[in-house]
Structures are given as C-alpha cells and as structure tokens.
Write a structure and sequence with these properties.
The protein has helices at 7-21, 28-38, 46-57, 59-68, 80-95, 101-115, 120-134, 139-142. The protein has 151 residues and is mainly alpha-helical. The protein has a single domain, classed as N-utilizing Substance Protein B Homolog, Chain A (Orthogonal Bundle), CATH 1.10.940.10.
Length: 151
C-alpha cells in the first residue's frame, strides 16, 4: 500500500524526477518504474506520476506556451531547474485534474525558491501568472482554494 504524502511533497518528488530526466533519455515509464523500485527517499506517488504524465503528453504545447511568454529570453537560456518547474506547473494548471492554478503557481514558486537561483522564483511567478490570466484560469472559474504555504 502506498504511503500518503502531502501534495507539496508529491510535487517536489515529481519535480526531482523530472529534473533528473533532463540529463538523460530514459522513457518516463521506465523512470517511474525505477523510482518505484529504488527510491525510498523520494518516491513519486500517483499524484506526482499524473503530473509527470500530463507534462510528457503535452510537452510540445507546454514548451510553446513558455516560448510565447518569454521576453528577451530563449528556452536555452532558462536554467534547467527553472524550466522544469515551469513545465510541471503549466501542465498541472492546464491539464491536471484538480484545476487549482493558484496552488500550482504557489507550489512552483516555492520549488524555484528552494532549488533555483535567488531571483528565479520571481520569473516563475510572473510567467505562470501571465499564462494563467491569458488562459482564463481565474480562481472564481476554477474554484480553487490556495494551499497554505509552509516556511
């Protein structure tokens, strides 16, 4: 039986697996299987696996959205941590089952603060906020409740 973990931890574990995937060519399902078999410290649960699958299934659309919102930047200039955070958050906002854009943005900002460079979280917040507004993902329409931020 799978241990329950917080959504925050599930997102972080999914992010860590997605980030590790940027260094190799292992298919997602193989990476998830290896994680299930070998990673007791950072397991990817069902929610995290859904986030990863949503990104991988829609990677071209997600990357196109990121490119469309870059001003004076190219995808190649964005740090690997930041692009991974953006990709997962956009996939969650647009294709995830929960439809909580403010939660996805907040969690992405927290991941950028924890793993990115000092100012990356501002870039993440601005780009994701712009995509959410442009896509019509407002809290009233989505019915989302923000998860509390833990220090």
């Amino acid at each position: 039986m799978e241990n329950q973990m917080s959504r925050r931890q599930a997102r972080e574990n999914a992010f860590l697996l997605a980030f590790s995937q940027t260094f190799g060519e292992l298919p997602l399902e193989d990476a998830l299987e290896a994680n299930r078999e070998n990673d007791e410290e950072r397991p990817v649960d069902a929610f995290g696996a859904c986030l990863l699958r949503d990104y991988y299934e829609h990677s071209a659309e997600v990357d196109d959205l990121i490119r469309a919102h870059l001003r004076g930047w190219t995808m190649e200039r964005i740090p690997r941590v930041t692009i991974t955070v953006l990709r997962l958050a956009i996939a969650e906002m647009l294709y995830g089952a929960e439809h909580k854009p403010s939660v996805a943005i907040n969690e992405a900002v927290e991941l950028a603060k924890k793993y990115g460079a000092d100012e990356d979280y501002q870039f993440v917040n601005g780009l994701l906020g712009s995509i959410a507004r442009e896509s019509g993902l407002t809290e009233d329409e989505a019915g989302a409740q923000e998860e509390p931020v833990q220090p």
